[in-house]
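in:
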């Protein structure tokens, strides 16, 4: 899989939310999309997901422009999970996950046994097989996130787009979910691009980090290159020290450090 963005621009009310983004993404990568609030992360994911269309520039998957893909064919290749996908309604987890098989079903067709097999496989990939018979409104936030992740995995996509999947999780579940994303990439070969504000966990598990500022791509680099005190000061406006352990750098804010 190769995803290409070339000079992509999208504006709300005349102000560029995504400003001239150019980037290429290959198969089997875990990519963290970071940056301050309002920097364009969610808009960029929606553009790749075809929820929005670029005002100028092109996005292509495997050499085909997004506008040239049939909607159902594209949905088989690219799965998108917004930040707040659904309320905690009373629905069995297995039925939620099997709904991810919709791109493979004909109009008015019911799910087949093979679709439920795929749903069970996806739940197992998310360490959530035990949740299959439970109902969403009986689950914790962390459990529901695993169910919704399984729903996008049920279609066996090449590319998964996640908008802040770590939000509202406690630190234990943030670590577990971050490790789960790493494991899914390694086991399936899928590429995952996810928006996050948690720099430390992103750096701990990701292959690559993209930092956005005011709609532009300010830095596209390895975690080690992003997690430098000078880069953090320039991009995020706070002072921090980098503590290295296990081959990765963790940021510790300096008490009383300057803010911009």
């Amino acid at each position: 899989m190769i995803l290409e963005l070339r000079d992509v621009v999208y504006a709300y009310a005349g102000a560029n939310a995504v400003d001239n983004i150019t980037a290429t993404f290959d198969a089997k990568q875990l990519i963290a999309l970071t940056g301050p609030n309002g920097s364009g992360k969610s808009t960029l994911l929606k553009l790749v997901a075809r929820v929005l269309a670029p005002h100028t520039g092109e996005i292509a998957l495997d050499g085909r422009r997004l506008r040239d893909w049939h909607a159902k064919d594209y949905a088989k290749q690219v799965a998108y999970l917004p930040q707040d996908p659904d309320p905690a309604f009373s629905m069995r987890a297995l039925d939620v996950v099997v709904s991810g098989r919709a791109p493979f079903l004909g109009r008015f067709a019911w799910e087949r046994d093979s679709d439920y097999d795929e749903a069970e496989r996806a739940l197992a990939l998310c360490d959530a097989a035990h949740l299959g018979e439970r109902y969403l409104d009986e689950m914790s936030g962390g459990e529901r996130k695993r169910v919704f992740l399984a729903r996008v995995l049920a279609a066996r996509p090449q590319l998964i787009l996640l908008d802040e999947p770590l939000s509202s999780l406690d630190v234990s579940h943030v670590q577990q979910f971050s490790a789960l994303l790493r494991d899914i990439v390694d086991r399936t070969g899928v590429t995952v691009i996810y928006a996050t504000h948690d720099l430390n966990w992103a750096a701990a598990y990701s292959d690559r980090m993209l930092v956005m500022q005011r709609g532009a791509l300010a830095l596209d680099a390895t975690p080690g290159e992003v997690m430098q005190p000078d880069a953090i000061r320039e991009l995020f406006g706070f002072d921090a020290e980098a503590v290295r352990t296990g081959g990765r750098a963790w940021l510790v804010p300096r008490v009383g450090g300057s803010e911009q």
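note: The CA atoms of residues 160 and 192 lie 5 Å apart.
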